[in-house]
Amino acid sequence: MQFWFAPTRHVKAKIRFPEVSVVNALTSLAMSEDLLQRVRDLEAEVQRLKAQLGEKDMPANEMEGTTTSSLIEKVNHPDTTGGTKKGKKKGQERPFDFSTHPRRHVALRLAYLGWSYQGFAVQENTDNTVEARLFEAFLKTKLIQDRQSSNYHRCGRTDKGVSAFSQVISIDLRSNQFCGGFGVTLPANVGAGAKIKEDAVEVLYVKMLNRVLPQDIRILDWAPVAAEFSARFDCRSRTYRYYFPCGALNVSLMSEAAKRYEGTHDFRNICKMDVGNGVLQFQRTILSATIQPVCPHSVSSTGSHDLYVFEVKGLAFLYHQVRCMMAILLLIGQKLETPDIIDQLMDVDNNPRKPQYSMAVDFPLVLYDCHFEGLSWLHEAEEVSHTLGTLQHHWTQSAVKTQVLYGMVQGLGHAGGVPSTHCWLMEGTRQKNYKPLLERPCCESLESRIEHFVKRGRLEREEGENGGELVHRGKRSKLSHNSPHMSVVKEVSSNGDTNDKQD
Amino acid sequence: MQFWFAPTRHVKAKIRFPEVSVVNALTSLAMSEDLLQRVRDLEAEVQRLKAQLGEKDMPANEMEGTTTSSLIEKVNHPDTTGGTKKGKKKGQERPFDFSTHPRRHVALRLAYLGWSYQGFAVQENTDNTVEARLFEAFLKTKLIQDRQSSNYHRCGRTDKGVSAFSQVISIDLRSNQFCGGFGVTLPANVGAGAKIKEDAVEVLYVKMLNRVLPQDIRILDWAPVAAEFSARFDCRSRTYRYYFPCGALNVSLMSEAAKRYEGTHDFRNICKMDVGNGVLQFQRTILSATIQPVCPHSVSSTGSHDLYVFEVKGLAFLYHQVRCMMAILLLIGQKLETPDIIDQLMDVDNNPRKPQYSMAVDFPLVLYDCHFEGLSWLHEAEEVSHTLGTLQHHWTQSAVKTQVLYGMVQGLGHAGGVPSTHCWLMEGTRQKNYKPLLERPCCESLESRIEHFVKRGRLEREEGENGGELVHRGKRSKLSHNSPHMSVVKEVSSNGDTNDKQD
Fold first, then answer.
1. Rounded to whole angstroms, how far apart are CA atoms A16 and A21?
2. E strands, A186-236, where?
């Protein structure tokens, strides 16, 4: 994002510490009106520019197409990319004949830093998503013909600013296994002109894709899978990590409280309810929820700068569930709530409506692992080391800059500065007087939300077998999930939500 | 955030009922956060679209301009900023009459993160410098009339990407001490209409300036100084810090080698010679040069991720001297050179010409301290704590992101990745086969450089008293150092270079 602000120095200055500017800006409520005006002006500007570009009529990835593809050309390795050799000579590009190639249903595991993306999943109003970069790479390397026909499933969604260490997707990719193999579909007209190579090494998917992907999106490895495998529906469990510094938090209290999340509970008060997208069931099973220091052996000069990680493993998660769980833990760590609040929020009989509260910020969250059974991951050893090098380089910069800041923090401490005890990981602004969660205004109840969407035809009521009432997803969201637009509408809340198995 | 990116029909709805949004925004502060995020996202979108439209070369965007300044207005405290009240009413702004106000010669100590600036000193070819932001703040707060008349000196220069924790400048600022005081000059026509306040508290320089400066430039404190005080010429010594992770480096070898820099040596082979700007003498005195772990008590799980700091204190430094010193130490730490190379490079009789080598990268370098005698720094306590809070906030983000990266580095290690032993802190590209420094091609000698600039009239030869030859700075750089351009030409090499006292 920062990149886009380059042209104006003030904006740059502002953007350099966005959250800080937010704090300043929110010191005055009157700002909100200015902000709304600003939003309207900008929206108008966006419309104007889009009109000039006639962009709405353009296919999604033509926007950055020019720059991206030119970049891609540079890093491309013809030896590994059957298709892209032709790609280099613009103009005389012959259409690539996918019908003469085998397809292989595979699982791909990828890591990405989500900080400068608008989220993982393709969205209608921005091109800046991990999935957009991913499909540009698939198309560029001629591994797929188009998204619609690619039999694509993702394991979990991650939101704007959220990273992943092992996100998993399943997709059909071009293969060179003309003699067949696990998950391979041979072309109808095989042999017709196609040279059949015995025991050929499969296309180097990892190397090929990493050559054309941005540095902050890396394919780690791949696995051949059965035709019916879905990264989304066959995922057994998911592990998220949320990193945070101790600061003034009582970590042992948080650690004890975290345990209360374990087991099967109704999390409607600890997520963002997304009824409009057919999420009507909020029971989720948490297999483990722990808080640990990130390096157990390390004893830093001041405990307040030690880092900890909240690690939560569950079968499936609701929209914003982990960041809401973390928000509650941060309130407990600040002694603003007692661990007991967790049980009270999960007791939906006595607390059927979610109290209004801000969730924890996005950038410390990582979808760290997705668990599948019986997959044999194949890495291309040299690629793993190459990716490791890239991460080491990025870590070096980040670690050194962190130390530069720490040196200044220490210096100001010695100069008599009083360290703030504020928790920087909560969204929204600091309240002068804390209002206990259970005394706050509540959000709409699940029932009234359902009512709302039934009225709008987004949900449909039906008579259940034994007279009970069933609520189904409305027609409008029954379209194929392969259409990028509808996939947003349908999966916006899923995070691999088990409900989605219904359709 | 996803809320804002919901399919456009939602956005339309929002535009259609802005007043509703106003109400929401005012009732929920978290909403304001969303609004600001929305603004940022829209600004990004606008930039993206403009980039597509090739609007880059438009006059720096009106839109961003307005918001940012309005944001600044908002955080401005009228009670502390005489000037900016008027600033709010554009158009009808009356000229501020500086002649009716006392001036005070003061020293200001400031900290800044140099990573997104082109350097400290104003440059002709970019507006993105710390000094440019600083003078904007002085002018906006009506503390000075213009740079030319402000009697401005800086203690040290820092280059592109280099930060400072206590950079010091001296300057004449508007004062409210109508009864005089240390360093105060009263207006000629004092009393003429001016209300004389007995023992008034001095203008809150720190608070006033920090309100209008970008968040990554903070004034720490100020000191009243005698009229003849110069931040540049009265600085006794300077301390630089260079942070680095252990990686595959032999740190104890580096630490032993660093000691060899201590004392008075000729550093012409360990800096960027800047003869064209009149730097003809390369002897510099290093008071101390040490390498220490940044947190002595910390024992991280793997030593290779421990951080160290090279701290060097000297009377004055040459252009790029510290980064060249660090580059040599990094070569020694990699066992590519022996500690003895330092003595050889400082032995200019036997090695009169600098071998070609890349210096260490910029971002880990911090001008950590500038030492003066007899200054009594005055901080505005609440401001120090406010700045500390800002830094803690930024540290939190940086530390957490570093940990996200570290988690991935560890994960890939377990996945069988082979960690790279490359040193990421050297500029330029990695050489396959290392070529020892003393076997490399050399740069021009000092003598031939002098010859070159004498020919160009940038330097002048004169007969010294006892027949010896003296070389003086040429006319072209004898211009007032108050002219931003010339100050670059003249001081580009100085880092508070004592030579510059010549003129």
1. 9
2. 217-224
Find the catalytic residue in B79, B127, B159, B369.
B159
CB atoms within 10 A of CB B502: 11
HEC string for A431-446: CCCCCCHHHCCECCCH
Residue A155 is encoded by which pair of tokens?
Answer: 């394991």
**What is the rounded average pLDDT of the residues B405-424?**
90
State the angle between helix axes of A31-53 and B18-27 in degrees (0 to 180), rounded to the nearest 10: 140
CA dihedral B69, B72, B78, B79 (to 10 degrees): -150
Q: Which of A45, A243, A406 sits opposite B395 (nearest CB)?
A: A406
φ/ψ of residue A99, rounded to 5? -65, -15
Which residues on chain B are in Cβ contact (under 8 Å) with A117?
none
Calpha distance B444→B353 (Å, rounded): 6
Token reading at B308: 């160290």
Between chains, do B385 and A420 touch, taking CB under 8 Å as contact? yes
CB nearest A53 (choices: B49, B60, B404): B49
Integer Cα distance of B261 and B253 in angstroms: 14
Nearest chain A residue to B34 by CA: give it: A428
Single-letter amino acid, residue A368: Y
B424 → chain A, closest CA residue: A393
Check A489 against B243: CB less than 8 A apart: no
For residue B305, give both structure tokens: 């991720």
Residue in A35, A395, A488 closest to B7 by CB: A488
* pLDDT averaged over every residue in chain B: 79
Instruction: Provide the 8-state DSSP code for A168.
Output: E
Residue among B8, B133, B392 with most chain A CBs within 10 A, to mutate:
B392
Amino acid identity, position A117: Y
From CA B475, how far away is CA B492, in angstroms rounded? 17
CB nearest to B392's CB, from A300, A419, A429: A419
Dist. CA B62–CA B46, nearest whole Å = 12
Q: Mark yes or no for CB contact B115/A401 under 8 Å.
A: yes
Q: What does the pLDDT look like over B326-350, one tens digit per residue?
A: 999 999 999 999 999 999 999 999 9
A8 neighbourhood in chain B, CB within 8 Å: 60-61, 64-65, 68
For residue B274, CA distances in Å to A30, B127, B346, B473, B500 come to 53, 23, 17, 12, 12
Q: Is the predicted pLDDT of residue B64 greater than 50, yes or no?
A: no
Q: Which two tokens stand for residue A203?
A: 């296309």
Q: pLDDT tens digits for A384-422?
A: 999 999 999 999 999 999 999 999 999 998 888 888 888
pLDDT mean over B107-131: 95
Q: In whole angstroms, give the CA distance from residue B163 to residue B240.
A: 10
Core vs surface per residue A89-98: b (16+ CB within 10 A) or e: eeeeeeebeb
d(CA A207, CA A141): 11
Distance from the B77 Cα atom to the nearest Cα atom in chain A, whole angstroms: 12
| Whole-angstrom distance, CA of residue B294 vs CA of residue A407 | 9
Residue pair B353/B443 in contact by the 8 Å Cβ criterion: yes
Residue A78 has pLDDT above 60, yes or no: no
Q: Which two tokens mark A75? A: 């890093």
ipTM of the prediction greater than 0.85, yes or no: no
Least confident of A28-37, B87-96, B311-320: A28-37
DSSP B92: S
Six-digit token string for A205: 């998917």
The verdict on a CB contact (< 8 Å) between A396 and B21 is no
Strands (DSSP E) found in B117-226: 153-154, 163-174, 184-185, 217-224
A159 is catalytic: yes
Contacts of A422 in chain B (CB under 8 A): 389, 392-393
Q: Does the pLDDT at position B241 exceed 70?
A: yes
> Per the CB < 8 Å rule, is B71 touching A21?
yes
